[in-house]
């Protein structure tokens, strides 16, 4: 039987299918023409189409009524009325098409019949008379029986079955019944020696020893105070023995002297029993009551990191700060221009083979680097000139025969790496000459 919920879900699905295939028709009233409406088609792809004008007499009821809802589930109402004791929201449990009363879920009783299945989806079997669970042991695909017994066979390392020791009718099998007349071996301990057994009572013989001497276990007895008393003497750090009975909880009349880290007794005021603590500074005792907020009349001396008092101008009370360089005082009002020395370098005409190199400015040494200001080169043959810091090229020029090039680096901080020479490389055989202006800087 189809429920109302199924019916409403079908109505909603039909509405969505119509919208996806054909769209939804909406009528909108035309402004200024009461009763005249335009037919508007809203498609699923978001487009809107006006298809014509029609006149609708009467009024359109847009109120929310349960009887007209097509798929909405209003959890506040059910069958048009508010949900409550008189109008409950129904829910059913269905198994194999049949409605199940949830009140019938209960604890099992002895009369209930439950079928249990194994991992192979087969029902487990039970003996009809005693209700035992039936379990079958199989060997070679057949249940064990008189004609199909389970025997334990003894085999050697090659897998060959050994002959029976006492059953001639079953060669290779051993009767597993434990019989003393048929015991086959000797039991050894961890030291490779046989464990011993008493001949008459068959008890396992165990011998107790201490320091290699046998001990009669019957001599283990309760200790006797008069003959077996143990003594323990308590002593102080100085080795002096004291009565252990004196260790007890302290009481108000006990006198104890407490010592500090310098092995001196801590002092106590005789009248109020306060612990006496003395504040000192520079070896001088300080009255702790004199610790107060500083006022304008207090004089405080401030020391720097070198344990020297910081100075102050007597008239204006400014803090005096002196600038120094290399141990010499500097007047901060005087700014001295730093004169930088530009050193010219010249490479006399030099014949180079193809891919030959020449040094224009030598490396300045460890801790220093070159800053390039100007560079010039001339060649007598067509070639390509590469300028390098050491072995790393930074510019290249293709020059014709008797060609020259001048490079201006003034205004740039064009520098090489520490202790790196300025060199050139000619791609073809040529005679080259060059000059350069550089500054030597700390790296």
How would you name the CATH homologous superfamily of the domain at 343-442? Satellite virus coat domain
Give the C-alpha Rg: 57 Å
Strand proportion, as a percent range, falls in 25-35%
The number of helical elements comes to 2
What spatial form do the alpha-carbon principal axes imply?
extended
How would you summarize what this structure contains?
With 443 residues, the protein is mainly β. Helix content is 5%, strand content 29%. Among the domains are: 4-82, no CATH class; 343-442, Sandwich (Jelly Rolls).
Describe the structure.
- With 443 residues, the chain is mainly beta.
- Among the domains are: 4-82, no CATH class; 343-442, Jelly Rolls, CATH 2.60.120.
- Helices cover 5% and strands 29% of the residues.
- The protein contains 2 helices and 28 strands.
- The strands form 11 sheets. Strands 20, 22, 25, 26 and 28 form a 5-stranded antiparallel beta sheet that branches. The protein has a 4-stranded antiparallel beta sheet with strand order 21-27-23-24, with no helix packed on it.
- β12 (208-210) and β13 (213-215) form a beta hairpin.
- The model has no long low-confidence stretch (mean pLDDT 76).
């Amino acid at each position: 039987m189809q429920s109302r919920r199924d019916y409403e879900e079908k109505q909603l699905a039909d509405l969505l299918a119509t919208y996806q295939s054909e769209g939804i028709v909406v009528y909108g009233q035309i402004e200024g023409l009461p009763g005249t409406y335009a037919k508007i088609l809203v498609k699923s792809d978001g487009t809107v189409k006006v298809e014509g004008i029609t006149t609708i007499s009467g009024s359109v009821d847009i109120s929310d009524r349960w009887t007209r809802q097509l798929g909405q589930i209003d959890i506040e109402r059910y069958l048009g009325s508010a949900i409550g004791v008189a109008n409950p929201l129904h829910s059913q449990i269905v198994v194999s098409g049949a409605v199940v009363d949830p009140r019938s879920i209960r604890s099992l009783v002895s009369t209930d019949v439950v079928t249990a299945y194994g991992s192979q989806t087969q029902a487990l079997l039970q003996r009809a008379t005693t209700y035992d669970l039936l379990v079958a042991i199989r060997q070679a695909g057949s249940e064990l029986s008189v004609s199909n017994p389970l025997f334990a066979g003894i085999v050697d390392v090659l897998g060959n079955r050994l002959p029976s020791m006492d059953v001639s009718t079953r060669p290779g099998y051993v009767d597993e019944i434990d019989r003393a007349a048929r015991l086959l071996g000797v039991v050894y301990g961890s030291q490779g020696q046989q464990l011993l057994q008493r001949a008459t009572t068959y008890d396992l013989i165990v011998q107790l020893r201490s320091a290699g001497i046998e001990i009669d276990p019957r001599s283990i007895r309760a200790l006797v105070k008069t003959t077996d008393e143990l003594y323990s003497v308590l002593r102080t750090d100085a080795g002096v023995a004291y009565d252990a009975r004196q260790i007890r909880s302290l009481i108000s009349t006990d006198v104890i002297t407490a010592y500090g880290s310098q092995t001196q007794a801590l002092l106590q005021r005789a009248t109020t029993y306060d612990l006496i603590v003395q504040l000192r500074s520079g070896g001088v005792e300080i009255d702790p009551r004199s610790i107060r907020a500083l006022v304008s009349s207090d004089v405080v001396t401030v020391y720097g990191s070198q344990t020297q008092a910081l100075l102050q101008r007597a008239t204006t009370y400014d803090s005096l700060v002196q600038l120094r360089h290399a141990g010499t005082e500097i007047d901060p009002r005087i700014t001295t221009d730093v004169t930088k020395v530009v050193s010219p370098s010249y490479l006399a005409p030099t014949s180079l083979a193809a891919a030959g190199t020449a040094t224009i400015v030598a490396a300045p040494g460890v801790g220093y680097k070159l800053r390039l200001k100007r560079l010039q080169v001339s060649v007598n043959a067509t070639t390509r000139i590469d300028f390098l810091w050491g072995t790393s090229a930074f510019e290249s020029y293709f020059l014709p025969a008797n060609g020259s090039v001048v490079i201006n680096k003034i205004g740039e901080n064009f520098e090489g790496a520490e202790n790196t020479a300025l060199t050139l490389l000619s791609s073809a055989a040529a005679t080259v000459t060059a000059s350069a202006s550089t500054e030597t800087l700390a790296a």
